[in-house]
User: Fold these one by one.
Assistant:
Number 1:
Amino acid sequence: VWSSNLLLGVSLGYVALLFLVAFLAEKLAARGRGGWLRSPVIYTLSLSIYCTAWTFYGAVGYAARSGLEFVTIYLGPSLVMVGWWAIVRKLVRIGRSQRITSIADLISSRYGKSTLLGVIVTLIAVIGSTPYIALQLQSVTLAIDVFSGPVPSRLLPTDPNSTALVVAAGLAFFTVLFGTRNLDANERHHGVVTAIALEAVVKLVALLAVGAFVVWGVGGGMMATLARIDASPISSWRPDGTRWVTLTFLAGAAFLTLPRMFQVLVVENADERHLATAGWAFPLYLLLMSLFVVPIAVMGLEVMPKGSNPDLFVLTVPLAYQQGGLAMLSFLGGFSSATSMVIVAALALSTMVSNHIVLPIWLQTRPQSAVMAGDVRTTVLRARRLSIAAILALGYLYYRLSGGGAALASIGLISFAGVAQVLPALLGALYWRGATRIGAVAGLLAGFAVWLYALFLPSFGADGLMPASLLAHGPWGLGWLRPQALFGISGLDPLVHALFWSLSLNTFAFLCGSLLTFPTPMERLQGAQFVNVFDYSSAAHGWRPGTAEAEDLLVMSQRLMGPGEAQALFLAEAAAQGKAGFLPDVSPGFIERLERRLSGSVGAATAHAMIAQIGGNATVSVEDLMAVADEAQQLIDYSAQLEAKSAELGRTARALREANEKLTALSLQKDAFLSQISHELRTPMTSIRAFSEILREGVGEAERTRYAAIIHDEALRLTRLLDDLLDLAVLANGQVKLNWAEADLGALIDRAVTAAVADGAGRSILVRREAGEPVLVRTDPDRLTQVFLNLIANARKYCTAAEPELRIVTSISRGVVSVDFIDNGPGIPAAAQTVIFEKFARLEDVSRAGGAGLGLAICREIMVRLGGGIAYLPGQGGAAFRITLPLAQAVAA
Amino acid sequence: MRPPPGPLFQSRPGYRSRRLGDSARLLPMQGLVLFMVPLLGGLGHSTSGGGLYIFGVWAALVLAAAVLSRPLGRRVSGDSRPDGPGSGASGAPTSGPG
């Protein structure tokens, strides 16, 4: 059995839970242990304040009246978030790099830190949001009314006005408590954000639960529900094209420009990477929020008595089925939607009001020294708290004055259309450097005026805030100025009509104003930093040095940021400049950083004005701008020079490294060569010495002859070695004298083969000449024959085949003669192929090698001198060497 | 104050990464076109069929955005300080020829 007292108890318990969660989150964050508080999930959930009570309850009502059209309210933001890479990412980057505190601050800061623009945007936001806050209060009172209707309770207030008052006061208390703890907007409101994330979960779960109950609990499943939709009064859907497009666009625009959305999307963003998650997770959240709207609406139309309010179907349908618990959950969902929206809206609006309206006035009314004398920090916080209370009071007043009737229900879209007037100036701020302050002011005023005239005032009905005669005939009887049929275009949906004209005139005025005026230096400076935010990370300077005193600045900063934080900042700045103590030199860079830090607390325009009061230097001259530009250009030039130099150094270092490696290798080679030579010389010397000693002691005739022969052989070997060495040295030094002559290659090869075979030493080998055409080469015939001889001798020595065979093949291609010496032996292992031409390079089997391993080295030197080359030719089925020679100039056949 | 011109042609990973950004920008336009398709039926549709279509497109958009979000997320600056030195340095410049 349902009890209204239970409702009160659950509501209070839920509110207590919210306070507890916010409190714990603040505690955790203060201890630095709240890492998960800045997770992408919390960020995504906090965006869900887009779904207010108006969408929680109202979407079902909307669907009951016009079918699927309600979905446009969610499609716009879904598209904006799916395309986060295009717009939202830039917005967030600018918000973070410029320490933007609100949408008004962004517009004001971009257009030269203009106070006027801050005021205009703040006023638009307040006027556009107040009815919306009233709408939330109304939804809570209506929902409570649903419960208290059947069972009156003495504890529940029967008067809806007092309910609204209690709710408004409670929300003001919560917002002041958790929203104004710190001044710097860049320090996130962990308590608030965590609480609204919890509320986001509650409202999603509530709506899904009601939806699941409707579809599966009483509806009989998916197919039955689809059939029920087809049988319902809203079974056919004929989208109104203009409304469909307009509403989708309007919702997307409002998503970017609503002060509360800007607060969670940009100001409370802790990490740009969270956007990557929110880019798909938030559209998913919206999808889930709207998934069951049509089924609930259809079920409500079916089971509820005629004339019942479709806006409350989410509550009344579960109640009609005696599902008290579900209705309770649904109530909490609606309550969550309302409260989270109001909290964040109040937070965002109070920041705007205090930074752009209260503080500038306060600064104006004080003498110049005020920023140093008064306690600015307390003033700012007090202004913010009072603003919160004032905004909620406005919302409550609006609720009372509007009578809480049906007029409020339509205010959601009207409110959207109001804040959407900021869109042209916002997009211009992000993408167009030519957008100027005058243009933005003109556009905003034009759009706002048309919105007031064509949409907001007429929305109260004939004789509400506008006389009926004006609505019907236009001012002074001018028919083309009728509020809902401007320029004679009648018959349009009032919302589409007003949005079209307001945004068109807004954009037109913005573009014309921007094209026709010339921006101030500060605007150009800020414009460049906003539009090119991805190219420039650091700020350009806007201050002339030396006019502000460091001590004055410290005094002022202490007032604003609190002594500890201000002193830490100044100490760090002084240390960075290499100075001891708390007073750094007042450099333009320092002022720039300080101003940006302060703008995180009080907004760009106010921070600029405060520093200007101390420095007495409120304007930036074109000369300053030029100086800054020159400085930046010099820096770019200098860094380009440095880069070129460093590239050159890199090249030199590489060359040096290579030279060093070559030298090291050469040195090693020389050492190896010397030790090899000593070894080669020593072996024959040792045997000569040994045998001559034996001979000296006297031996028999036979032995003497044998030993003398050995000594002779060894001496010959020594001589040969020395000859070879000498030969090699002469060749390597280029001192050799070559006897150039024309010679027939075939004849030379024949000579070498004959000589090698006649020598008789070593094993016999079958030499097969593949006779080609006769080739005439210009060379040193004796040296070339020496190379051939060497190669044939090598083949005889190393070819271990059973029937050794050597093929000599001559060929000509592209002016080069090559002679291949191919045997049928085992060949040379791949690893050894690279070293065989080195001096003393001999393969493992030393015993069979008669020489010292200089043969191929000499061959290579000779061939180089002769203008050709020698190379090992792998893959021929045996050891194969290719000798290449340049062809004689005149090829004689 | 002109930004230093980037390379005229990108290497393969750089090229891929730019086209990735392009697809992220095109995705909402694609979605917009698909959401406007029901306007073409002059005679109207059934609410159930229209609803299934709208939610189907919506779910596909969510899926596509989720697939793109991983590589894109890696390109976004990880610096969480408001005006730290790295906050503007990373992330490929979006201007210049692709």
Note: Chain A touches chain B through 66 residues (CB under 8 Å).
Number 2:
Amino acid sequence: MNALEDRLRRELPALASALVEAKDDPRRTGVTTLGSDSVTASSVVKRRTTAWLSVAAATMLVVAGVVGLVSIDRKRPETLVSSIEAPMVLASSGDEPGTDDSPIDDRPVTSAVESPIATDVLNVDGETVRSCDTFRRGVWGAVSTAEIPFTIRSGLTVAGGTWVSVDDAMNRRIAGECQDSEALGDGAVEAQLAWPIGDDVYVASIWPSRNDSDPIPGWFNSIGRYSVTPLRSIAVIGRITPDVELPNVPDIASAAVERERQLIGKIEQVRDLRNYVSSLGVVDGGADASGTSASVTAVPFVRDGSAEEICTAAGIETNPADHERDGVVVHDETSTIDGVDTRWLICTGDSASGWGVTALVSDDEVNWKLSPLGLGNSTHAGDTTEVVALDSANATVHYESLVGGRSSNATTIDGGATWRIDTVVT
Amino acid sequence: MGTSSRSESGVPTDADARFADLFAVERDGMVRLASLLVDSVAIAEEVVQEAFISVREKWEGVDRPGAYLRTSVVNGCSAVLRRRAIEDRFQTVRSAQPEIVDLPIHLFELRAALDCLTGRQRFVIVLRYFADASDHEIAQLMEVRSATVRSLRRRAFSILRKELS
């Protein structure tokens, strides 16, 4: 609660001042735009990553950074609109700039570009698109690095769909997607588009957070850079398909398709790698220039209930000083061998928490072997966790922190009683 | 020193001067407070204006004009939110919409999160963390028990934590 209190104390006066000052400044009213001069790649990500990754867990694992947020006026969803100018360097963590653990200061973030909108060529930010038939998907000219940074815009259509576009610094629409679809709230509306720049494929997405208790979901868009070159930057992109529409620039579209094919090939390589479980017989601590290794011995933990409840209880157990958080299920799998069911439950905390990854293993789903593996918080943007539970004894948790620049493998060969954690600085 | 304290010659009296001082010192802060409470600067300015008029009219009988002013502002905002709640229930469009303002993203998020609170929850949060009022003071301002204030704050935190996480 302290963090929230601190934030309220810090930001309520700022909000009051901003509201009052904006009233006297007509340039700052009329259109709800989220100026990127006050947005860093990282500041957005952390707050919205929980919901995003809860969706993405089923559909995509993202290694690259994510930028962007769609605003929503809950009272008037027809005014949903956003504008985020995304800097070129997208990889980031979810930390606020300037905070102690923020890596953002070390990263060259291209400054925002003023982007007055040319109403004659673009769907204006704030404009309600009647339907996708009237949505301009125009692309003018080839895309080059000179045109970045770019802006993500998105909004609703009267028909209840969504549109998302990526416009370059010259207000040319690099790519756009519009989807007349189901009404808000059913979780079906989303749009994604991808385009290549150099060796990278950029993917912009918009989708609602799935929250059953909220009939009007929070919306956010994201943009990620997926490089086809270094292996560790490969992401599983669940919803990107070769029929991404870039209708006016067929060469770019075909290039995008080709990039995606390459990505898919790399993804398969990653999947193959996941199946490797080292047979480590000795567990002890140590460190050298290339990384560290350590061991974690499980402690008994008794708890039944849903996976979420168990994760929350385990997180509180291991993080008593940060207890007002919710657990997040990273992986829940039951391995059966010789008639014995072994449940592997890998947890972390919500994105606002400082919880790391916790492994819980049980044969009866009540008595658990609890191992706080640390590693990081899987809900943080740019971090991925992949879990492979081979059988009742062997499992690996692979944690990749692109932003943190480290790659960790936590491995057990004794059913979660002990874990060896090897971390490599990448 | 009532409303008639201005001399017939039009020369400002001591009460006028002190009221002017109060206005100069408190007005901007009250507008900010009211803006957070009702999420509209225009409405906030109206509420504050009305509150100052009320203070001026009752100047002679008011021991602590600043406290009276704040109570008036809070009560005025409360009335606005009550009206708004009724409008939300029975009308499709509010008579007065909050201004759309270009805000930094973290403030935009905060504003949206505050919009998810009930009027009373919002009051508790704003009064506590913007006006730095104690639970006891908030209870007096809202004419509820301190326990109610704590309960409202807990619920508000639950919502804010969810919205801001």
Note: Helices of chain A lie at 2-23, 41-59, 250-274, 307-318.
